[in-house]
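Inputs:
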Amino acid sequence: MIEFTNVSKTYPGGVKAIDDISLSIGHGEFVVLLGPSGCGKTTLLRMVNQLEELTEGEIAVEGSSIHDLNKIDMRRNIGYVIQSNGLFPNMTIEDNVMVVPAMLGWSKEKKKERFEYLMNLIGMPPETYRKNFPHELSGGQQQRIGVARALAADPPVMLMDEPFGALDPIIRARIQEEFLDIQRTLKKTILFVSHDIDEAIKLADRIVLLKDGKLQQFDRPEELLNRPANEFVSEFVGEDSVLKSLSLYQVQDMKAKLTLPEASDGLDGTVFKHGDSLRYVLSHLLHPTPKPVYFERQEGGLAGPISVAHIEAFVREMTA
Amino acid sequence: MGDFLSYLGRNYADIFSYTIEHIQLLGVSLTLAILIGVPLGIYLTTNEQLAATVLQAASIILTIPSIALFGVMIPILSLVGQGIGFLPAVIALILYSQLPIIRNTYTAINNVDPNIRDAANGLGMTTMQRLLKVEIPNGMPLIMAGIRTATVLSIGIGAIAAFIGSGGLGVLIDMGISRGNQNMIIAGALAISILAIAADFGLKKIQMKFSPKEIQ
Amino acid sequence: MNSKAVIAWIVKIAFWVVIIAFFWWTISNNMYAQILENPEQFAGLLGRHLQIVLISSSLALLTAVPAGILLTRPKFKKYEWIFVNTANLGQTIPSIAILALAMGFLGIGIQAAILALYVYSLLPILQNTIAGLKSVDPAAKDAAAGMGMTPTQILFKIELPMAASSMIAGIRTAIVLNIGTTALAYLIGGGGLGVWIFTGIQLFDNTYLISGAVPVTILAITVDQLFRVMQLFLVPKGIRKAQKAAAAT
């Protein structure tokens, strides 16, 4: 879907912003470009829609090299969201969202229908906001509109440059959830820039970790946490990487890895389901006055009681 | 060119005395304009309705073409026998200077960071103490900017006032035009421009001095 | 009604009383005699006045706006500081000096007046066009480029609407100053309503003074107010509302 082959960018003066990066991103994959500021993640993103030139190598989107595509046409086919939302203050919400469809010459009915669909998708009633202007909305609402605008012409690929970075933590968490829901239905191929490891873990199918324009690791979040490729990666993911990774595993993962004791029915305790996060389980076990913890079994009955030792065993198993 | 230089050589004393006249006119009118405009601007921050009216009136006065204002003032001041000369020029310059001075003072005081004002109140300052110790010092760069605008404006209008007998560098242009003396016109135009640019530059330096270091 | 509102109200009425008293006094002393007795001459002077203003400010508009746009394009950005500094410096030069210098180039007559007023109007328009275009949020331009707008589309759909407020303010300043300065065109043989004002000064004749000065003043104030209204139509609603909201906080 998006193919980076030996991509480099050297600024005049010899500074290498991007150093020989090759990545292959699959259809419908959500990839987060992660790293400290100045690592080149934004540059790499902006190369895809040719807002930045590349000095060497090649980027292909849907099989065709970006050099062969018309800059303007390809940009209209790629959704683009930036941190400071970049909404146009001179246009109404409807005109903002419909910028690309208008340039593509969609009919009035088609635009209206699409606007209403998108506004419902992001949970903002279309009639309430149609004639509003960007400054009349809250920061979170503006960022939702930014997302809707990028989705307007239904592009297969979305480029997002720290889209939720300027929001306060509570609103950011809510919008991340909403956006994950949207992504589950739409299945876009997404490149998403972030400097926040927690955001990356929460959203990404795979994470690209960069430092000084060089690729450090390109892997699933749990791999990044449990099997860091080098010193920098383990430092970047932090001392609490094990705790972080627990939020990526669920009860069913543990059941698949370990043989758990059979529990007799009707015991007083807390029962966790297949999809529950192991982070919650651990939190329960560490409670000062813990109740026994059991897992629900597919074939009926319960497994347990589960102890901290089980978690330890599971973590050892995963990082081995 | 050589012709012009020899003109300067012959007439530098005249040009110098016209410059002094020009500066005198500015000195009197700007001093009065500041004495009126700054307190008025400060007072207006306490009365928003009045501020709207006064600022609107001052901005309309500023759109009146200077020569037309002189034309209107001559019949009025003739009633007290002062139709032409120094007085109408001073009155006109005071009127024109009001908008930049009042507006900048008003904005400067109004724009003082509410937190700073809050802190001053919290420390138990009276309104007058707060004004003198906090609001005016913090608003000084903007107030000075208004005075600077008024000064540059007044230098140009002061040149036009020569046509109603106020004296100053405009006299050179007036006489130059009526006698068809190109050198006189150029000398007058250059002297006025240099005076305006020098005043702008000098006041900018003073304005910077008033700005707290961290704002610069 | 509190005492502050009363003061504001009294001052407002006082302003109106002064204006009405002025007109009552000038009318009852027959100071508009020149207009009433020589309507053709008045029409001729007014026409010449408007002619100078229109020609010089249209030329200034047609030069300064494209120049401002050009100087904010990446290709020419490196020359911008020269023009901005020249414009800054140029605006401190008094209008009478520019008129006198133009006469040095073109001699006495309407051409010299038009040249001087053209140069004089150029600077505020250029300055405000550049300032307006430079103040456009870079994020909006980046988003527009990223969505596939062409540079021309970005200019017309994003940059110019967002810069409109500043640009119109510059044009307004330029034209209002132009109307006033045209009254000085008489001095270099340009004609216009200044003819009566200067005749009035030389002859110490109130009818000439008032018949010349009052129409010029009304013209300047009217055009200024017209532009204020025009700003309401030309500046996009969203930006106007945003500015108002920003000013209120």
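The CA atoms of residues 144 and 207 of chain B lie 6 Å apart. Flag for discussion at group meeting.
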